[in-house]
């Protein structure tokens, strides 16, 4: 039996053996809900986990919401949200829980620092201020207030959902974490990064390197959602104006990189332009 302090939500999408074994290991210590977004039925067994096979891709936001709803319904206090590629160890999860237990209720999310394997770099914690964006190195032994963190590896205080709401399913995949975190900020909630806790994670495919700078790379369909959802977030009043400004400044250079330095670049160009068009028109959900 598990206590009802913290459960784990893992979103699967065509998981490999390593993903399955990692989830199996976590299920030995915690109640694990696996929401499988794979279109094809993949056979695997994780006896101690509760597996929900959707047999279609409903998007990361909807999949997370299914898991979050389960733990709220069953009176859990926290939920750790994980991508299938993340590999937190048991001590990291217990440290997140112990830290959260000493926080006030307005701290809705705590997260470790993460090492991005794709670009060989520790990610900074980002803070949006009136004067601009502050990149805070993930170092030290004190918690760092952040405007947002990546979903995977974060520990969510479930009581905050009643005020903040669930993940925005209209976004489907990209910027789901940023939108939710900035929505939480706008309602007075705090998000804390814990730099002494480390988690390895990989975002995207093999990065593109130009003039000693590495750009996270994705498939054409992910670039559709990236560009579309930027324009959807521009419409939202709770999104910090400095974030909007920052993303608009980065938009053209990113378009240039993905248009000229990716394989099958025409697919990327069409996807990005379609995303911009659909974002301006306000089209949401899964790409038709």
From TrEMBL:
Alphabetized UniProt keyword annotations: Glycosyltransferase, Transferase
Entries under Gene3D superfamilies matching the protein: Spore Coat Polysaccharide Biosynthesis Protein SpsA, Chain A
Membrane-spanning ranges: none
Source superkingdom: Bacteria
UniProt cross-references to InterPro entries, sorted A to Z: Glyco_trans_2-like, Nucleotide-diphossugar_trans, RhaTrfase
This protein's record includes keyword Transferase: yes
Annotated ranges, domain Glycosyltransferase 2-like: 18-118
Molecular-function GO terms, alphabetical: glycosyltransferase activity
Entry's family note: Belongs to the glycosyltransferase 2 family.
PANTHER family linked to this entry: GALACTOFURANOSYLTRANSFERASE GLFT2 (PTHR43179:SF12), RHAMNOSYLTRANSFERASE WBBL (PTHR43179)
This protein's name: WcnY
Organism listed in the record: Escherichia coli
């Amino acid at each position: 039996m598990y206590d009802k302090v913290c459960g784990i939500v893992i979103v699967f999408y065509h998981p490999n053996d390593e993903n399955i074994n990692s989830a199996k290991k976590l299920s030995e210590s915690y109640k694990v809900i696996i929401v499988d977004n794979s279109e094809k039925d993949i056979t695997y067994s994780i006896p101690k986990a509760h597996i929900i096979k959707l047999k279609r891709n409903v998007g990361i936001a909807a999949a997370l919401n299914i898991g979050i709803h389960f733990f709220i319904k069953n009176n859990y206090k926290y939920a750790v949200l994980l991508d299938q590629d993340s590999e937190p160890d048991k001590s990291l999860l217990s440290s997140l829980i112990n830290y959260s237990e000493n926080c006030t209720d307005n701290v809705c999310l705590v997260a470790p620092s993460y090492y991005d394997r794709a670009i060989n770099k520790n990610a900074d914690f980002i803070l949006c201020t009136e004067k601009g964006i502050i990149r805070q190195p993930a170092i030290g032994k004190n918690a760092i207030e952040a405007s947002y963190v990546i979903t995977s590896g974060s520990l969510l205080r479930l009581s905050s959902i009643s005020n903040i709401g669930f993940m925005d399913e209209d976004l489907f995949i990209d910027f789901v974490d940023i939108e939710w975190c900035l929505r939480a900020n706008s309602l007075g909630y705090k998000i804390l990064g814990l730099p002494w806790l480390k988690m390895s994670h990989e975002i995207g495919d093999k990065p593109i390197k130009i003039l000693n700078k590495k750009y996270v790379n994705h498939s054409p369909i992910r670039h559709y959602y990236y560009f579309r959802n930027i324009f959807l977030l521009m419409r939202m009043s709770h999104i910090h104006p400095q974030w909007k400004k920052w993303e608009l400044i980065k938009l053209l250079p990113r378009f240039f990189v993905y248009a000229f330095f990716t394989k099958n670049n025409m697919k990327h160009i069409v996807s990005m332009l379609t995303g911009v068009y659909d974002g301006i028109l306000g089209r949401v959900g899964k790409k038709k």
